[in-house]
């Protein structure tokens, strides 16, 4: 049993016993032949288990405040579908606000400094006490 300084993980056996051990443990050891390289593998070696992965797919998000639509990949659960302009039918997720309607991103957010001098009133009133 050997301990890797890079990861602190205990290893049983060698990479010859299990060619994917370096991938599983997250490191590869250097040899005299050259630098450290992770072993190459075929796609058939990495078959995902069924039933444990989320449904990652393209989803259409719609901003309800202005009707702005955008498509991105997501795992969000949806009940509705929408037909896109290009003919695709995608799951639909409705948003209350997005970057197209949020005041911070549209530049319409009001600053506290510009709201009737409230900050200046506070500084005049309590600024001398703290100094």
How are the SSEs placed, and which strands pair?
Layout: E1 2-3, E2 10-11, H1 21-25, E3 57-63, E4 69-74, E5 80-83, E6 89-95, H2 103-106, H3 118-130
Can you give a write-up of this model?
With 131 residues, the protein is of the alpha+beta class. It folds into two domains: 1-47, no CATH class; 57-103, no CATH class. Helix content is 17%, strand content 21%. The chain contains three helices and six strands. A four-stranded mixed β-sheet has the order 4-3-6-5, with no helix packed on it. A two-stranded antiparallel sheet has the order 1-2. The longest helix is centred in the C-terminal third of the chain and has 13 residues, at 118-130. It is flat and about 70 Å long. Residues 1-11 have low confidence and may be disordered.
The number of helical elements comes to: 3
Helix content: 10-25%
Query: Strand share of the residues?
Result: 15-25%
N to C succession of SSEs: EEHEEEEHH
Report the oligomer.
single chain
Give the CA-based shape: flat
Distance between the termini: 64 Å
For this entry, give a set of tags:
four-stranded mixed beta sheet, alpha+beta, 3 helices, two-stranded antiparallel sheet, 2 domains, 6 strands, 131 residues
Summarize this structure briefly.
This protein has about 130 residues and is an alpha+beta fold.
């Amino acid at each position: 049993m050997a301990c890797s300084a890079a990861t602190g993980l205990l290893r049983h056996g060698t990479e010859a016993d299990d060619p994917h051990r370096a991938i599983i443990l997250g490191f590869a050891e250097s040899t005299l032949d050259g630098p450290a390289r992770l072993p190459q593998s075929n796609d058939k070696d990495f078959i995902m288990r069924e039933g444990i992965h989320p449904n990652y797919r393209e989803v259409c998000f719609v901003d309800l405040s202005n009707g702005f639509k955008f498509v991105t990949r997501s795992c969000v659960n949806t009940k509705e579908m929408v037909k896109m302009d290009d003919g695709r039918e995608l799951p639909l997720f409705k948003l209350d606000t997005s970057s197209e309607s949020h005041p911070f991103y549209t530049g319409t957010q009001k600053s506290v400094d510009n709201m009737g001098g409230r900050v200046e009133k506070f500084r005049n009133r309590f600024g001398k006490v703290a100094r």
